[in-house]
Amino acid sequence: MQPNPHLPTLRQLQYLIAVVELAHFGKAAERCCVTQSTLSAGIQELEGILGTTLLERNKRRVIVTPTGEQVAAKARQILTLAADLTATARPTTTPLSGHLSLGVIPTIGPFLLPKVLPAIRARYPALELTLVEERSAQLVEQVESGKLDTAVLAFPYPLRTLERLLFWHENFVVALPTGHPLTNQPVIATESLPADQLLLLQEGHCLTDHALAACRLEGLKAHAAFQGTSLYTLMQMVAGGQGITFLPEMAIGEELLRNREIHLIRLQEPGPHREIGLIWRSSYGHQADLRTLADEMRQRL
User: Fold this and answer.
1) Is the domain of 261 the same as that of 209?
2) How many domains does the chain divide into?
3) 1 pLDDT higher than 50
4) Separation of alpha carbons 15 and 47, rounded Å
5) Could you give the CA distance from residue 162 to residue 280 in angstroms, rounded to a whole number?
6) 227-230, long-range: CB within 8 Å, 24+ apart, which pairs?
7) The domain boundary residue, chosen from 43, 70, 89
8) Confidence of residue 74 (pLDDT cuts 50, 70, 90)
9) Which of 37, 68, 89 lies at the terminal end of a domain, its last residue?
10) In the predicted model, is pLDDT for residue 292 greater than 80?
């Protein structure tokens, strides 16, 4: 089959994405390791092939046209598929070897990774792991765009086109200050929770949504007494007698159990209250490795 001269090249798409993301021709050229004139010529050729203006240029700034935004979005998908194709074709006989970029949400990373990574690194010494901690929405976007190979998320969570494999599930407990009137109960019922004492994570942390959904208290988010940035902050607030919060079972370690200022009570609502799994693109070339990784995590937990 003869190459079609009217189709964009991958290199031209890379040039466009770099300019769109950096809003600067010079910086985009540096990222792409070419001269600025080469990059500019490549984008002009791309505009000629497509028959439309993608970028408005002046001395002060670069403005991406609406069509340019749409083309850049498609270009990211094409480059991601091309990278996955290359990964698929790359021969490998050793499982979990080579580079793997893994995202994880903040309400899982500090508690999951110390439990599973030492054994995984020891068993698979050829694995080059890059870790990124972000909220769920950002991780989904980065996996979709190809910036990440895979990510650990808590469910339920909308994935659009991504695939998932669950490897764990758990319940929530309520953490209260020692001496709180509710600490004399073996389990705690939803209707007993004082909404004006709830300490929750800020908007964007799915743990809050999962916990409130498990307790059928979705409408109480706006009435929280405090919204923190991390579970550690909330634990310190509870220990200081400032309110109560939800903790996933994964976060309950020996240090927390020895903390005499925090009392833990199970929720009466049946679980599991959230599920945990890996996500990836359907085009990703080493899905067998991800299934192996999920299985290793399940075993370590």
Assistant:
1) yes
2) 3
3) no
4) 12
5) 6
6) 227/199, 227/200, 227/201, 227/202, 227/203, 228/199, 228/200, 228/201, 228/202, 229/201, 229/202, 230/106, 230/201
7) 89
8) confident
9) 89
10) yes
